[in-house]
């Protein structure tokens, strides 16, 4: 706000080789995000994550590709999950599994972090993969741990420096290298799930998001700019798993801590 007071509601700064434009104040923010939305809808390239997603998927893409991928995701998330009684039933079943997992601790102190993350992850997994993962599944547990570590490390000073000086930082050790290594392992796991779907795929009976995407790939062969291919499917799958897991899990863990600290609200 001090810079805005000195230089005005629209000003720019350089971060390494990148010029960043800042917009401050209600009037200018409304102008950018409402009046001229079409001119400001694109996302900037974030080098730390561009290495992983290559400008594909939903969260890091732009233009025509982004519009097509977002529309497809919205349509099929509604079809396979959002607003459907089938998803509500899935949540109820997962709640039962979660409660049983808590009971197995027999009142002893334990860290519910990954049990709750697994439970939340199973909801989006049922939509994307068509199945859930047992809490004892070591491969899915590993993926949750890798993703959690990557998101924490992405906020570190060295990882932020990577965004400013990617050409230099890619040669240096640091948490940014761990972020990339973690995502490579996560992508390998997701790719195995996609390959299983490709082997079992029946275009007349789509079971989940991946099946529907494979069908769309066949339909959109004549429109390569829409980006319906296995690389974009992999990026979209990562986007959906991350968006449907970490945020909700963090919110639920916060609610759990809140209820522990204020037990009177549990009644």
Kindly describe this structure.
- One of its GO terms (cellular component) is endoplasmic reticulum membrane.
- InterPro entries: Cyt_P450 (IPR001128), Cyt_P450_E_grp-I (IPR002401), Cyt_P450_sf (IPR036396), Cytochrome_P450_fam2 (IPR050182).
- The chain has helices at residues 2-7, 26-35, 37-40, 47-53, 63-80, 85-103, 113-128, 138-153, 157-164, 166-169, 175-200, 209-219, 230-243, 246-261, and strands at 10-15, 18-23.
- With 267 residues, it is mainly alpha-helical.
- The chain has 2 domains: 1-41, no CATH class; 45-266, Cytochrome p450.
- Strands 1-2 form a two-stranded antiparallel sheet.
- Helix 4 runs parallel beside helix 11 (175-200), helix 6 (85-103) runs antiparallel to helix 7 and helix 7 runs antiparallel to helix 14 (246-261).
- The longest helix is centred in the C-terminal third of the chain and has 26 residues, at 175-200.
- The chain starts with a helix and ends in a 6-residue tail after the last helix.
How far apart are the first and last residues' alpha carbons, in Å? 43 Å
Reported for the largest beta sheet, the result is: 2 strands, antiparallel
CATH superfamily of the largest domain: Cytochrome P450
Overall pLDDT confidence? 91
Provide a count of the helices: 14
- Give the strand line-up of the largest sheet: 1-2
N-to-C SSE string, H for helix and E for strand? HEEHHHHHHHHHHHHH
